[in-house]
Write a structure and sequence with these properties.
single chain, 333 residues, mainly alpha
């Protein structure tokens, strides 16, 4: 079974070398624990993470068995961390450039949005002024129409009275009721009033035509302003949708870039880990093979020693037998 995969340089976290003694490691851990404790770093958002990394590092390096397993992985971890800074630097530079571009685009967008809002505010103000002018123009037109109607009614009333004075009925009834003759001054005054009314009607009629023409122009202008407001609002809505789409696309690209980068890092870590694990397995297999060879050699050595001892014992027994036979032969003789 493969050991747990580790990607952090715990020696660097503990600020000790790989050859540091347990006492040195413990002193460094206690010193850093006091410095990095979250209660003393309330203003730092990553204080808890840093302290947890320190505790995890000490749990691994402070345990002799876990440290031995970690030391097998440490060279590859150090190699990866030395290889990553350049890529991380390029990634940071690209991200910074992208952020500057995004900030500049956002600034330009804000300026355009502010200019658009100012244009829209002016158009709305212009619309309000036009509505006020149209209301006033309608009021004046109604007043002029009423004045002209009143003057026309007075003319009609005067004409009616004059017709009644010159009618046959008045002629026949005048002996009975008496006919009042108009003086030249009254006739002149009536004619003067009629002429004044006609002049006033002509002036007011001319003024009414001008007011109606102006009202028509105001309505046309109001229609143009309404069209401009609608176009400006549509442009703002289109720009808002476009900006939202751009933000979504930018977010998607950032997520894709981050995902690809993380996948690449994961593949690199996995490849390095598999290579390290294969190396460990190879070393373990070599160690097992060497142990087997050593055991076989020891077994063969023991077998040779046993055979040599047996041969020596057999030789000694044979020599003893020969001595015994010579002794017996000597006694018989």
């Amino acid at each position: 079974m493969a050991p747990c995969q580790v990607t952090e340089d715990y020696y660097a976290i503990l600020e000790v070398s790989q050859t540091a003694s347990p006492c040195t490691i413990r002193r460094s851990y206690l010193r850093l624990a006091v410095i990095l404790h979250p209660d003393k770093n309330l203003s730092k958002s990553n204080a808890t993470t840093a302290f947890q990394s320190l505790v995890q590092a000490y749990e691994i390096i402070g345990d002799p068995e876990k440290r031995k397993l970690y030391d097998l992985q440490w060279p590859s971890i150090r190699h990866r961390q030395r290889a990553y800074p350049e890529a991380t630097k390029r990634e940071a530079e690209a991200a910074e450039t992208e952020q500057k571009g995004a900030a500049e685009a956002a600034s330009n967008g804000q300026k355009q949005q502010k200019a658009s809002q100012e244009r829209l505010h002016r158009l709305v103000q212009r619309k309000s002024n036009l509505n006020s002018e149209i209301f006033e123009a309608n009021r004046i037109i109604k007043q002029l129409s009423a004045d002209i109607q009143r003057l026309q009614s007075q003319d009609n009333e005067t004409l009616k009275e004059e017709r009644e004075r010159n009618s046959w009925w008045t002629y026949f009834t005048s002996p009975l009721y008496g006919k009042t003759e108009e003086s030249s001054e009254q006739k002149e005054q009536r004619e003067t009033e009629r002429l004044q009314r006609q002049a006033a009607k002509r002036i007011k009629g001319y003024d009414l035509d001008l007011r109606k023409h102006k009202l028509e122009n105001l309505k046309n202008t109001l229609l143009e302003v309404n069209n401009k407001i609608a176009a400006e609002q549509k442009r703002n809505d289109d720009e808002a949708r476009e900006q939202a789409a751009k933000r979504q696309e930018q977010l998607r690209k950032e997520q894709d870039t981050k995902r690809r980068f993380e996948e690449e890092q994961a593949r690199e870590r996995q490849a390095a880990w598999e290579a390290e694990w294969a190396k460990l397995q190879k070393e373990e297999a070599a160690r097992v093979a060497k142990a087997a060879r050593d055991a076989e050699e020891a077994k063969m050595k023991l077998e040779r020693e046993r055979k040599a001892q047996e041969a020596q014992e057999a030789q000694e027994a044979q020599e003893a037998q020969d001595r015994l036979e010579r002794f017996r032969a000597a006694r018989k003789s």
